[in-house]
Each structure stands twice: as structure tokens, then as C-alpha cells.
Amino acid sequence: MAGADADINSPPIESRADLIEAMSSGCKPREEWRIGTEHEKHLFHTNPLRPVAYGGPDGVASLLEGVRQETGWHYFYDREHPIGMRNDEIAGGISLEPGGQFELSGSPQRDIHGTAAEMAEHMRVSKKVGSALDIHFLGLGVTPLWQVAEMPAMPKSRYAIMAPYMGKTGTLGTSMMFRSATVQTNVDFSSEADMVRKLRVSLALQPVVTALFANSPFIDGGESGYLSYRSHIWLNTDPDRTGMLPFVFEEGFGFERYADYALDVPMYFIIRDGQYVNVAGEDFRRFLDGKLPQLPGAKPTIKDWENHLSTLFPEVRLKQFLEMRGADMGDAASVAALSALWTGLLYDDVALEAAWELVSEWTAEERQTLREQVPVTALRTPWPGDILRFGDVKDAAREIVGIASAGLIRRNVLNDKGEDESIYLAPLEEIIQRDETRAEYWLKKYRGEWGGDLSRIFTEAEM
């Protein structure tokens, strides 16, 4: 997340190579690979049941202050408002999404045992502070009750720029901002070739992962008609900066081709003198030529480019690492499960090769059809195309979970009980065995024992 001083001391962009290096500089040897996990939780009060505003004695700012006192982390600000905090000892921190979703950007971990321990400590501190404020944490992909107009807005300048623009470029962009919550895994690469292989595998598999983690069947107080409404939201959010990136599978793809894609995505903002300047819809290429109408003659810094890269939202995003963006938020076990799945698939050579063999013949049409249909039917989505590689998405999910499990077993990273990282795949194995996503579990409850009382989910899906 860019701070208000993001433009200070950043060197100017002097050549096309600088654009590429902003991503290629992430290449690192295997022994330095880490696992980053980011997760967003909806906040709510129970007395009465309502969203949590930023200010006031029981607001988000008070939650931030309590967590700051517990952890010793340091605030960062948007003007005078604390909008998050950083852990100065290990990279990582807490930030706020537009509707108050409380996000931990986890520190880079060597293994999933560390990821699970970090999640447990974060929730321990957050719940300790939150309990005194009647602030609770909901592990769902979309807020089930409240409309966009009912959601509080956090005092972040970039969101004041993004929201109006989202209203012009898609039908559900503001729902993405204010009502959705995700969990994502960030992984490293060793070289351009390694990045390309991992990006292709993870892009192709992202709809299958969306199906496994489907956990947002409700919207506006009732059934949404989707098992992952969060994923449906992204299908209707600013097509210039979202999607499955079919060009990634073209011959010759690499860092330079991704830079060209990023240059073609309209801008949101730049930061100058601690202030966000609204340049929504402008062309970064014109910025390179000093032709932005808002700042005539100004040319971009490396930090401007890095900020721009952070405003791209494809299903997998490339920066100095790869961000897996396809999963709904769930409970703590599902957070660890996502990172375990991607670590098992991408950090073991045998597993990565098996995953590539699995997806290498999928067509762009198949990948896009899966992306469009999975939000509705998740694991029950029939396999598209003329060649039926699987009966349905559940068959593909079963295979990739098996590949990931074998990869984690080969990694053989043990906890103090002698267990390897494959233990964290248990929630996914249970979903496949029971033939029931979390979304379908909630729908069964809603239609049955809850008697249509959706407020019950705030108790049962509380983290």
C-alpha cells in the first residue's frame, strides 16, 4: 500500500528497462523463496447488527489503535487519518479496504506452519481488541446483508478516486470495493522462465481454486444465485484491468509483454507532495512523455510505476512476485489451505511439471468459460470444450489437490509434531469428499435450520 510520501526519493524512469526491472528484480534463488498470505475480514457490530464505521469510540480507528498498542507496529496515514500500520521488524502490516475490511498483509514465511501461526496470532490480537469494542470478524467472500450505500467509507484518498471511476467502467466495481473480501497467496520466482511457467499454471487453475473456495452465496439479505458472488463481481469490474490475461499463454511472453499490458491499463492516481492527484482514465504512456493534463511536464518515477502496477486486478497479478487472487475469504483454516495449495503446486518441481502437463492443452476458450461459469456452480461446473478432460470442475480440483499434497510431502517441512505441510490441505480434501463447498453448506443452513434468517451467519461464520 502506498503511503502519502510515496513519491519522495524515488528515481525517475529513464528507460523501458526500468519498467521491466520493477518486476524482474523480484527474481531470487530457491533458498530465498517465501510465502506471503493476505486476507481481508469483514467487520461488524452485534448490538445492533451493523457495519463498523471508521470513527467513534467503537470504530475501525479504535480497533487500529488497540492493535497498535498490542503489537508495537507503526501507523501510516492518509492526511491526518491512521489507515493502517506496518511491522518494521518483518515486512508486513495491516491496511483497510474501502468498506472497512480489515486486511493483514502477512510477512514472508518460509513455510505454511509459519503462515498458520501468523494467522492465529493476528486473530488472537484482533479479537482481543475487538471484543471490548463489540467488533467482530466475518469470514465470507461478500457481506451478506448490507448494500453498497449502507457500507461505511474509509478515509483513503485513493478510494475516493477509484469509486467514481469504477462506476463508469463496470456494473459491480463499487461492490468489489465495499462488500467483497478475499484471501490471496503471494509466491516467488527464480527467473523469467520460472515466472512464465508459474503464471501460466496459476492463471489456468485460478477458476478451479475459485470453485474450491466458493464462500459467498448471499447478497442484499438473500440468495445471490451464485456460489461465489465475489468472483461474479470481478467479472463485472473494469474489464481493462481484470481477467484471465490470454496473452500470457502466447509464445514469447515475459516481463516485457506484461509491462506493455500494464502501460495500456488506464491510470487511477499519482502521488505528489503527499497528496493523491486524480488522473483516472489517463494513459501512462502520455505520463512517460510528460503530457498528463493534470501535471503538464511531470514525468513518472519508479514508485509511480509500482503504484500503477498495484492498480491492476487480473486473476493473477505480477509484481516482484505473483499474487493469486481467485479465492473467497473463509475461516482461518481456509486461509492456510490456500497458501498450502499454491506452495505445493508451485514450489516443488515435480508438482509444477505435473500441473503444467495438466493445463498446457487447455484452450483460451476453456479457461474463459470456466472463469465465467464457476462463480455460479463452482465444483459442479461441467467441463467445457469438445475434449472432456474431466467430468466437472470437482474432478480437476481433486487432481490439483492431490498434486499439491504430494508436492508438500516432498518438501518435507515438519512442525514440532513431525507433521508436514500437507496437513493444511485437509479443508479442501473435506470439501471434495463431502461434495459440498462452504457456499453450499451455508445455503443448506439458510434454507433449513435457519429458516431464512440470514443474521445467523454472523454467528456461525464469525472468525
UniProtKB/TrEMBL annotation:
Pathway: Sulfur metabolism; glutathione biosynthesis; glutathione from L-cysteine and L-glutamate: step 1/2. Its EC number is 6.3.2.2. Keywords: ATP-binding, Disulfide bond, Glutathione biosynthesis, Ligase, Nucleotide-binding, Transit peptide. It catalyses: L-cysteine + L-glutamate + ATP = gamma-L-glutamyl-L-cysteine + ADP + phosphate + H(+). It is an enzyme of class 6 (ligase). InterPro entries: GCL_bact_plant, GCS2, Gln_synth/guanido_kin_cat_dom, Glut_cys_lig_pln_type. The keyword Nucleotide-binding applies. The keyword Disulfide bond applies. One of its GO terms (molecular function) is ligase activity. Catalyzes the synthesis of gamma-glutamylcysteine (gamma-GC). Belongs to the carboxylate-amine ligase family. Glutamate--cysteine ligase type 2 subfamily. Homodimer or monomer when oxidized or reduced, respectively. This is Glutamate--cysteine ligase. It comes from Devosia nitrariae. The lineage of its organism: Bacteria, Pseudomonadati, Pseudomonadota, Alphaproteobacteria, Hyphomicrobiales.
